[in-house]
Design brief:
This protein has six helices and no strands. By secondary structure, it is mainly α. Helix 2 crosses helix 3. The radius of gyration is 33 Å and the shape is flat.
Length: about 160
């Protein structure tokens, strides 16, 4: 049984349209005109109704289809800029920079590039602290070696 927006009352329809913006039920209930005091529970109740669920699912699906078509259109345009050899009769000429930017954006869309995390440079204080820790570790290591060397010398002298 297919539910249409006609099965929802005006407040429910307003709620659903608001809910599609940010998926915040409480805010959507308030914006649709429901009581602020009971907005949270009202949103919960509305979202549990089968006709509202079905309408929401249909709208989200339509939105996903539109987003897919828009992404496809953008990528097609970028591919055209990046790869199209234009005859002289075209007024728009793409520069090498335009083509490189288009290729970069295509690569980014497909996850071929990623941002490197910023490497923080050590302050002088941090460098000094690191050196001090290394010196302490090396002196402890040298002390252990000398102690183990003395105990070996003592055992061989006996």
């Amino acid at each position: 049984m297919s539910m249409s927006k006609e099965t929802l009352n005006k407040k429910q329809l307003k709620f659903v349209n608001e809910y599609l913006i940010d998926f915040n039920g409480t805010r959507s209930a308030k914006a649709a005109g429901y009581s602020e005091r009971s907005a949270h529970s009202t949103a919960h109740d509305i979202l549990r109704k089968p006709e509202v669920k079905e309408y929401l699912e249909r709208k989200v699906s339509e939105s996903n289809e539109l987003a897919f078509l828009e992404r496809h259109r953008v990528l097609s345009t970028l591919k055209e800029i990046a790869y199209f050899d234009q005859p002289d009769e075209f007024k728009t000429q793409y520069t090498t920079a335009d083509r490189l930017k288009a290729l970069f954006l295509i690569g980014k869309a497909f996850g071929l590039f990623w941002e490197r995390p910023e490497v923080k440079e050590e302050s002088r204080w941090e460098q000094g602290l690191r050196r001090a820790i290394l010196q302490i570790q090396e002196s402890k290591k040298a002390k252990r070696l000398s102690e183990s060397g003395n105990s070996e010398a003592d055992s061989t002298a006996k």
